[in-house]
Design brief:
- Helix 12 packs across helix 13.
- This protein has a nine-stranded mixed sheet with strand order 2-1-11-10-12-13-14-15-16, sandwiched between helices. It has a five-stranded parallel sheet with strand order 4-3-5-6-7.
- By secondary structure, the protein is of the alpha/beta class.
- The radius of gyration is 23 Å and the shape is globular.
- The longest helix has 17 residues.
- It binds adenosine-5'-diphosphate.
- The site of adenosine-5'-diphosphate has 24 residues, from strand 14, strand 19 and strand 20.
């Protein structure tokens, strides 16, 4: 027998309407490139979203059309993020740091009808611009653009908003209607498109807003230092709006980020480990005035326990580790301590916090070996993580589900290799392709990197496998030192690792570099490292 409850579609419009009605006085702050702040409230955001929804309809954008953005984190980007799905179209945030050829391919596949371009990203856009009809560009922050062709041909964002009424009424009858298209960041190969529905994003928003996940409340001031094009800004814009938290939008490279945290009283900030490594020295200097900052949400890559320790012990800022992927909207697991862990020594707590955590409610997870056999959750067995949830992709955009990505019983194959312990805490040991196979045994690059980073003079480290005739593959470490040293660092690091790992795990070579190459979203770029190693064959080998 079917139940007798309202069939009430779960749509983004509800999130927006609620944010306006209940939290209309809450703020959206944007740090402008000149270091100044722009602030308005949710009521104003709502009004402009309604105007923009009318304006894009006027431009000919219809439900189901893809509308790209090429933008940094700004209030305009947030408006587009809201207005496009509000009008039934599909928001497609482009990763501004991808190579122009890759971007052109993505724009072609997505068949974007218009691109909303942030003038502050004009330099990156210039290489893509020639592959695109500029009459399909809607430009904001145009004062940063020096290309007359672009300013002449494009449509002015503020003009179309000014000319539009603020009476748009959203009407999305089916919660399974598509609302956003986001491509993976391309760390493990070519970017792939994930098409979210209103329902999946609504449920993801509710799920991450639980106390043991992001735990945002109306009292929070949230600063997503993750670009809005990286896995939908990890769901933070919609999550913050639904609970009525103030939002602070800023570019991670802006020098005033730490000032801003102090001035506005940011309580929760989110970003990849690279961001927190970079900001740590600045935070150390300014210990006193960042006391508002209660916790960091860190994900996208494993966070080393040494970094967790620095934030928690020195700065009193709690670190919460998240794992997910664009395919999961993106949240899959979240690491909070159990009640049973509360009395553990700090060292033990940091070890747990460096794990990727437990599946959040709504996410089903299993570990599977190469033969398709399910493995036990004993903290030892390593297998591929497979997932199911209402916010997990069922097939990539414009592609049929293939066995490479989906199992016969319709679980998503994440390509991540992990252990899960009896308490349900997952620990990623590498991506399927990143795990080094040496003499038939597995070597975890993540575990090696974690221990390398604990050595006092090591600022950054990455381990990769290179082909080896005898063993199949052997590990090589690429290391950034915090200060120059005359010691035989290679031997020292070998000894340091030998205390924790079997002999065959120890990298054959240690290459010292000034910087480890990162991808557009700040993850270690292993492909670029392979190129770096090839180039350094005769170079700085120790
Ligand atoms: P891409 O797959 O191109 O990197 P995503 O940004 O969606 O695009 O990345 C998802 C992947 O990032 C995951 O499959 C996993 O390999 C990695 N990842 C995300 N969070 C973590 C984490 N906390 N620890 C380890 N790896 C992570």
């Amino acid at each position: 027998m079917l139940g007798a409850m309202m069939n009430y579609p779960l749509t983004l419009a509800q999130i927006l309407d609620h944010a306006n009605r209940i939290h209309g006085d809450k703020h959206v702050h944007t740090l402008l490139p000149n270091g100044k702040m722009d602030t308005y409230n949710y009521a104003m955001l709502y009004r402009r979203v309604k105007q923009l929804a009318n304006a894009i309809t006027e431009l000919g954008i219809r439900p189901g059309d893809r509308v790209a953005t090429f933008a940094s984190n700004t209030y305009q980007h947030l408006e587009i993020y809201c207005a496009v799905p509000y009008a039934g179209a599909i928001i497609h945030p482009l990763n501004v740091r991808l190579a122009p050829t890759q971007l052109a391919k993505i724009v072609e596949e997505a068949d974007d009808k218009f691109i909303f371009v942030d003038g502050t990203c004009a330099a990156q856009f210039s290489q893509l611009q020639y592959k695109i009809d500029c009459r399909r560009v809607v430009l904001f922050n145009a004062n940063h653009v020096h290309d007359k062709n672009l300013t002449d041909l494009s449509i002015d964002y503020e003009n179309i908003i000014a000319e539009a009424e603020d009476n748009y009424i959203s009407d999305i009858p089916d919660e399974n209607w598509a609302m956003a298209l986001c491509y993976t960041s391309g760390t493990g190969g070519e970017p792939k498109g994930v098409l979210y529905t209103h329902r999946s994003m609504f449920l993801h928003t509710l799920a991450v807003n639980q106390a043991d996940v992001f735990g945002l409340t109306e009292s929070d001031v949230v600063m997503p230092l993750v670009p809005m094009f990286h896995a939908m800004g990890w769901g933070l814009p919609y999550a913050a709006m639904f609970v009525g938290a103030d939002i602070v939008l800023a570019d991670t490279n802006n020098e005033r980020i730490v000032d801003l945290i102090a001035e506005i009283g940011v309580t929760v900030a989110a970003g990849v480990p690279t961001v927190w490594t970079k900001l740590l020295p600045e935070f150390r200097k300014r210990k006193q005035d960042i006391s508002s900052l209660q916790r960091l949400i860190v994900g996208g890559e494993p966070i080393p326990s040494s970094l967790i320790e620095a934030y928690e012990k020195e700065l009193g800022v709690e670190v919460r580790h998240a794992w997910g992927m664009t395919e999961m909207s993106p949240t899959g697991t979240f690491c909070t301590l159990r009640k049973a862990h509360q009395n553990l020594p700090d060292d033990e707590k940091w070890k747990i916090k460096a794990m990727q955590g437990r599946p959040i409610p709504g996410v089903q997870m299993r570990l599977v070996n190469e033969n398709g056999t399910e493995l036990p959750w004993d903290g030892n067995a390593i297998g591929e993580v497979q997932v199911k949830s209402p916010w997990t992709v069922s097939s990539y955009y414009k592609n049929e589900p293939t066995p490479e990505h989906f199992t016969v019983d319709r679980w998503l194959r994440t390509g991540d290799l992990a252990t899960i312990n009896s308490e349900g805490y997952m620990q990623i040991v590498g991506r399927a392709k990143a795990l080094i196979r040496s003499g038939g045994e597995s070597i975890s690059t993540v575990a090696l990197e974690n221990v390398l980073l604990k050595y006092p003079h090591v600022k950054d480290a990455a381990v990769i496998g290179i082909p080896n005739e005898k063993w199949g593959e052997r590990p090589i470490a690429v290391v950034v030192l915090s200060s120059k040293t005359n010691e035989n660092i290679s031997e020292i690091l070998k000894c340091h690792l030998a205390s924790e790992f079997p002999k065959f795990w120890i990298p054959d070579r240690f290459i010292i570099v000034d910087e480890i190459p990162k991808t557009g979203v700040g993850k270690t770029d292993k492909q670029a490292i392979i190129e770096l190693i090839t180039a350094s064959q005769k170079g700085e080998l120790l």
